[in-house]
Amino acid sequence: MSYTYPIDEVYWTKEEIIDVVNFYSLVEQAYEKGIKRDDLLMAYTRFKQIVPSKSEEKTLCSQFEKESGYSCYRTVKQAKALSPGDKVKMS
């Protein structure tokens, strides 16, 4: 990994930064090896508590996709379409 995660070090607490980084990490894992749907959706729920604004979410996720090539939007969309207990594996 040779890129940085888009985070807000000014307004977010250390715990919030860790939770947002965890969400980004799970999106990466969905592309690289696959992850449990429920784990991703729990992390996304926490991400939305930290970033409730849809426009801010789009900005952060766009920055993340530009840096990494991994789409938060498509990953969460696929996870929501799966049944509980399924695995998310992006291609």
Could you describe the 3D structure shown?
Pfam families: UPF0223. The protein is mainly alpha-helical. The protein has a domain at 19-80: Orthogonal Bundle (Annexin V, domain 1). 64% of the residues lie in helices and 4% in strands. The chain has a two-stranded antiparallel ribbon. The relative contact order is 0.20.
What CATH first level of the domain at 19-80 would be assigned? Mainly Alpha
Strand content: under 5%
- Mean pLDDT rating: 96
Number of helices: 4
**Shape summary:** globular
How does the major sheet shape up?
A: 2 strands, antiparallel
Share of helix, binned: 55-70%
Short précis:
This protein has about 90 residues and is mainly alpha-helical.
Index terms:
single chain; 91 residues; mainly alpha; Annexin V, domain 1; 4% strand; BH2638-like_sf; UPF0223
SSE blueprint and pairings:
Layout: H1 14-32, E1 35-36, H2 37-50, H3 54-68, H4 72-81, E2 87-88
Antiparallel strand pairs: 1-2
Pfam families: UPF0223
